[in-house]
Amino acid sequence: MQATEEIWINGEFVPWGQARTHVLAHTLHYGAGAFEGVRAYRTAEGTAIFRLDAHLDRLFYSAASIRMPMRFGRDALRAASVGLVRRNRLEEGYLRPIAFFGYGVMCVSPEQAPVDVVIACWPWGAYLPHEMVDLKISRYPRIPPDATVADAKLTGNYLNGILAVNEIRGTKYHEVLLLDVGGHVAEGSGENVFFVMGGQLHTPRLGAILPGITRATVMRIARDEGIGVVERDIRPEEAFGADEAFFTGTAAEVTPIRSIDDRVIGGGEVGPVTRRLRKLYLDVVHGAEPRYREFLTPVE
Ligand code: PMP
Hints:
Number of strands: 17
Bound molecules: 4'-deoxy-4'-aminopyridoxal-5'-phosphate
């Protein structure tokens, strides 16, 4: 991780090295934190944060799902994000807002715990630094929607993904694919998944997955391009027979999938639909597609 100069904590910009919390902070022990992963990109008119409002919407949804009172409103967090990227002179990179229960009480209920809100940013390149990725289906199912708030971006939910990626350590696989408890394809540990079948996109319906902002962006771009999108239950055997497959995520952007459980998808190369959508997505985030300007929050 590459440090920048400052981190925003509870309304103040603090030097990176002094951005500390207490070891008895509630969220460190019980895993109830709401967070986001956001990217900023270089555009022709300077750096812009991509889909900041959609990320803030999801952050407030995640916080509300654990009855966490947010100390700061949307305008304050938008201004803090923009100010932080500018003060750190970050041209391109990643932002990590997080709201967590801090120090003061030690019991499961966070009711009496204070809430701390932090935003950090730093330069960050490709999350899955491979031209294509090979996936292993995890033996851990994706947390069922009713067991926690599975569609919120909560720190504790990531234990599910950590267990899954621990299984592929030291193997040739680059990432995992989790199925839902019904055995349908759900998502990666930090990505949503799409399959190209007969020229259309097929992707798991909402329910057992994180409603990805990149997923929504790619669906919008595809439909605008006249490519149909179907959200449905997808069995792994159907996925193996897809013409193409790719992951989406803020960090992963659009990452083509080569194989799942050693079954090569399509011809094992980046397919034409994936290639086209990946290029369009990268054009959109870099401000080269005027139709999607509304997605960009300039920092200057
Ligand atoms: N699923 C999971 C489990 C994730 O952690 C992420 C990354 N936030 C995604 C999907 C993709 O979501 P987004 O496109 O909003 O980054």
